[in-house]
Amino acid sequence: MNEAKGFTLLEILVALAITAIVLTSTYGVFASLSSAKEELEGDGEIYHQARVLFDRMGREIRSTYFRPTARDTLFRGGEGDILGQDYLELTTTITSPTLPRASGISQVRYEIRLNPDDREAPPILVRMEESLLPGVNAEGMEHRLAAGISRFGVRFFDGLEWRDEWNATEGGGLPQMVELFLEMEAAGRPLTFLTAIEIPRIEP
User: φ and ψ at 132, to 5 degrees?
Assistant: First the structure.
């Protein structure tokens, strides 16, 4: 007569230990994949934001309107007075549809400011716009474009070298290209973005 055989206590403990190791490893893999997925999604949002910012600024820079003899037209940039960050200011034929009269020429300025809602948070990129159309008596508009920007930089190419400062009203005219630099915070680590925009030559 055969006796029924069962598992010994040692065999059960070994099986439980192996099962625990397998489950822990599986959980670790899924946790790593979930963390990587969240990081990629966060980075994707920041890449999209940078692309939108560069596209908007690029269209305005390519549509720069500056004439030495035209009153109020300008193109300048470099280190500003706020946080030691750069700024960019220009007159452009690209105007926001929310202006009282969304056509003609606008004066636009980009600069970095402290976040008024949280002084400990990374700064924000601000865009200010004012219509230069005759007869338009309206205050300029100001928009917060993006938060979490730790650095905004501009440089200007004069055909021979890159310069950190530019002022077209001082007789230098417009640069050939403008370089834009953004450093944005992503989960405590910086992501940097760089692009160069050519200003079309307008024949007199």
Answer: -105, 10
* Six-digit token string for 55: 């596209």
Asked whether 103 and 133 are in contact (CB, 8 A), the reply is yes
CA dist., res. 43 & res. 24, Å (int): 28
Q: What is the pLDDT of residues 112-134, one digit of tens each?
A: 988 777 777 778 899 998 887 66
Reported as a pLDDT band with limits 50, 70 and 90, residue 197 is: very high
Rounded Cα distance, 106 and 138, in Å:
12
| 135 has pLDDT over 70 | no
Q: Left (φ > 0), alpha (ψ -120 to 50) or beta: where does 46 sit? A: alpha
Taking the C-alpha atoms of 108, 162, 164 and 51 in order, what is their torsion angle to the nearest 10 degrees?
50
DSSP letter at 169? G
Q: Which residues of 163-199 are buried (b: 16+ CB within 10 A; e: fewer)?
A: eeebebeeeeebbebbebebbbeeeeeebebebebeb
What CA–CA distance (Å, rounded) separates 151 from 182?
6
Residue 96 · residue 106 · CB < 8 Å: yes
Burial label for 60, CB within 10 Å (0-12, 13-18, 19+), is buried
Domain boundaries, the chain: 47-198
Biggest alpha carbon distance in the chain? 115
